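Quick one: co-fold with 4'-deoxy-4'-aminopyridoxal-5'-phosphate.
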Amino acid sequence: MERLKNIWLDGKFVPWNQATTHILTHGLHYGSSVFEGIRFYKTSNGPKIFRLNEHLKRFFYSARSLGLKIPYTQKTLTAACKKLVTKSGMKDGYLRPLAFYGVKNLSILPIGFPIRVALIPSLWPAKKNVLNICLSPYIRIHPQSTDVHAKIGGHYVNSIVALMDARKRGFDEVIFLDDRGYVAEGAVANVFMVKNGTIRTPKVRSILPGITRRTIIELVRREFKKRVIEKDILLSELLTADEVFFTGTAYEVTPIARIGTKRFAISSMTKRIRDSYTDVARGKLARYRSWLV
Ligand code: PMP
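Sure, here it is.
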């Protein structure tokens, strides 16, 4: 990983080598961390952080779901994110807010544990333009096992084992079903299908309610005068789609060429949605500039 000069840790900008934690860190042992993934993009007005407010809001929501009291306000974190982007000197890249329980003892229940907070800038690695995915043999975490709408570190064990299995079988990514057998999402993305001109996506139940998902639903409504249908979708329904795509901070809007042996076209609707998302994120559409910080 690129050793960027500055990381914001517990209220201070520190060099890479000092952004460390002790081996007894609770978050390391038990997955008791929360995080975000945020992109910033080059625009004609300098680098802009995309949907920072929404990401930080979800960061605080995730923290609350783990009883983690972040000892900073959203305003303080916003200012720190802006400073980090400036200090990084990068025109576009990625920001990783992270909060976790620190060191006290080996107890599972983190009562009276210190809370650590970091903001980590990173370069953005290029991603594939088209994905081949498979059905995961694992199901998405049961929505009553924990708060699945929170972005909790420990949840990602579900994504890790599924992705490892997919890579072994030669696929880029996965589609998870939920506990009832309905389509949930990818390992780090939400899924949409297009059929006969209608756009559908799984309801918010067993999925992480993606900020990109919400952005696309709004863009489709405002730009294409269409409503995205949020519903329970069976795998058999997904496989009859004309087009399928993933959305997420990492993938933005990325078409899916194949689910298992079933191939999909990459047609006009996915391309139109992708182009409009790209324009909005890069500040090319004035009416969405409020989404850029
Ligand atoms: N689902 C999961 C499990 C994810 O990790 C992500 C990435 N945060 C998403 C969906 C997409 O969310 P967002 O659009 O907010 O990046």
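If it helps, The CA atoms of residues 58 and 266 lie 32 Å apart.
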